[in-house]
Amino acid sequence: MERIAFIGLGTMGAAMAANLRRAGFEVTGWNRTPGRAGDLIGLGATEARTPADAARAADVVVVCVSDTPDVESVLFDSDGVADGLREGGLVIDCSTISPDATKGFAARMREHGIGYVDAPVSGGSEGAQKATLTIFVGGEPADAERARPVLEAMGKTITHFGPAGSGQAVKAVNQVVLAATYIGVAEGLVLAMKAGLDPAAVAGALGGGAARSWVLENRSSRMIDNDYPLGFRTSLHLKDLGIALELARSTGATLPVTALCAALESGLVAQGHGDEDMSSVARSIRALSGLEG
Questions:
Q1: Which of 9, 35, 66 lies closest to 27, judged by CA?
Q2: Which DSSP helix (H) or strand (E) runs through 197?
Q3: CA distance 45 to 109
Q4: Where would I find the H helices in the chain?
Q5: What is the pLDDT of residue 38?
Q6: What is the dihedral of CA 278, 279, 280, 281, to 10 degrees?
Q7: Predicted confidence band at 39 (pLDDT cuts at 50, 70, 90)?
Q8: Which residue ranges make up each domain of the chain?
């Protein structure tokens, strides 16, 4: 069984690393902010001082950090993964970052004799905890196949789409679809409230028909209560929409709903709501409709 280094123990990464340990993998963890590995250590994992140290103890490195510059830093800065992982190793990047940058990172790793798979995930903190994530995979077929047992310990639906960067492109599509779904559910619930209907009853009824969705089932109560405990940060979804809109510009696609969602989320971040769950897009729809509290 491959030895794993897990780089990035945030809300998603900590749960994913814990599932790898529960599946029997030997895990060494590292996080930029110290003190996040306590629960993982309790499961029998170890903590490294640097990404390079973590990589030296591993055959496969899993990365789960916030943005493209963060991935580049943990991979290629001094004491980064490239300084520690041996030739023949494999990097699996579960972050959500630029598809073009991913292609470059994969090429740089190949110069070190190291395989590279981009494997961004969908399913939120619930999916990370339950090991039911959907995982979009890009990379060489042999690398994707080697990564599969590791990914299967963290997720349920794993699909290889093509060369490096393909997984990130599919994740951009995923975030575009989510943007429209969150806005649609928020607008529908606000319309129900403005029409004097019981929004919880409306959500329950819609769940039995064509409007059924994960967002309706799992986030409608937050939109009704106007309370948005963290599942997936609004600021991170806004970052993801930036990646999607850049991909749209480069490919000639037009994404009007995505642009609207990005504008609404930009306003929420500016107002200090960036650390709320992304269902807080309903906060904007409510305010525009004159609903307070």
A1: 9
A2: none
A3: 26
A4: 11-22, 38-42, 51-56, 68-76, 81-84, 99-111, 124-130, 141-152, 166-194, 199-206, 214-225, 234-251, 256-270, 281-288
A5: 82
A6: 90
A7: confident
A8: 3-163, 169-288
d(CA 119, CA 104): 15
Q: Does domain 169-288 have CATH number 1.10.443.10?
A: no
* Phi, psi for 216 (deg, rounded to 5): -60, -45
3 state DSSP class of 61: strand
Q: Are 266 and 238 in contact (CB under 8 A)?
A: yes
Lookup result for tokens 């064509």: 210
Dihedral, CA of residue 96, residue 97, residue 100 and residue 104, to nearest 10: -100
Q: Which residues are catalytic?
A: 171
Q: How far apart are CA 280 and CA 227, in angstroms?
A: 8
Alpha helices in 77-137 (DSSP H): 81-84, 99-111, 124-130
- Measured in degrees and rounded to the nearest 5, phi and psi for residue 25 equal -75, 145
pTM reported for the whole predicted model: 0.94
pLDDT tens sequence across 86-114: 999 999 999 999 999 999 999 999 999 99
User: What's the pLDDT score for residue 293?
Assistant: 57
How far is the C-alpha of 173 from the C-alpha of 243, rounded, in Å?
Answer: 10
**Confidence (pLDDT) at 235:** 97
Q: Which two tokens stand for residue 71?
A: 């991935």
CATH topology of domain 3-163: Rossmann fold (3.40.50)
Q: For 131-186, how does the pLDDT look when each residue is reduced to its tens digit (9 = 90+)? A: 999 999 999 999 999 999 999 999 999 999 999 999 999 999 999 999 999 999 99
